[in-house]
């Protein structure tokens, strides 16, 4: 009987740990996506209206190579934004 109770507790604890790990991973993905969206919008605000429209159209496709080709400073800005270094361009 004691072995059954211990096995039940072990299964319960492992399922709680698995749920916690899954939630933590999902939160990290959401945070990275939120940073990417914020960085994209911040970069777009620095462009002219026409460039902003073109940039956001390409950004929606997710084609990073095209973004880096047409806006060379995008890669550095994106990396700084994802790191959380919001002082980019102020130096």
Written account of the structure:
The structure is a single chain. With 91 residues, this protein is an all-alpha fold. Helices cover 81% and strands 0% of the residues. The chain contains four helices and no strands. Helix 1 (2-45) runs antiparallel to helix 4 (74-83). The longest helix has 44 residues, at 2-45.
Question: How would the blueprint of this fold be written?
Answer:
Blueprint lengths: L1 H44 L3 H13 L2 H7 L3 H10 L8
- Multimerization state: single chain
Would you report the number of β strands?
0
Using only C-alpha atoms, the radius of gyration works out to: 22 Å
Arithmetic mean pLDDT: 84
- Described by the principal axes of the CA atoms, the overall outline is rod-shaped
- In DSSP terms, counting alpha (H) and pi (I) runs of 4 or more, how many helices? 4
- Low-pLDDT stretches are none
Helix content: over 70%
Biggest sheet statistics:
none
Task: Return the structural class.
Answer: mainly alpha
SSE arrangement, N to C:
HHHH
Q: Roughly what fraction of the amino acids lie in strands?
A: under 5%
* Termini gap: 68 Å
Give a short overview:
With about 90 residues, this protein is mainly α. The chain has helices at about 1-45, 50-60, 65-70, 75-85.
């Amino acid at each position: 009987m004691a072995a059954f109770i211990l096995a039940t507790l072990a299964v319960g604890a492992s399922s709680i740990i698995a749920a916690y790990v899954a939630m933590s991973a999902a939160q990290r993905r959401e945070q990275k996506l939120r940073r990417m969206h914020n960085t994209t919008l911040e970069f777009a605000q620095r462009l002219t209206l026409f460039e902003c429209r073109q940039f956001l159209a390409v950004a929606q496709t997710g084609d990073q190579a095209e973004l880096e080709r047409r806006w060379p400073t995008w890669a550095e800005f994106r990396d700084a934004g994802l790191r959380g270094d919001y002082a980019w361009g102020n130096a």
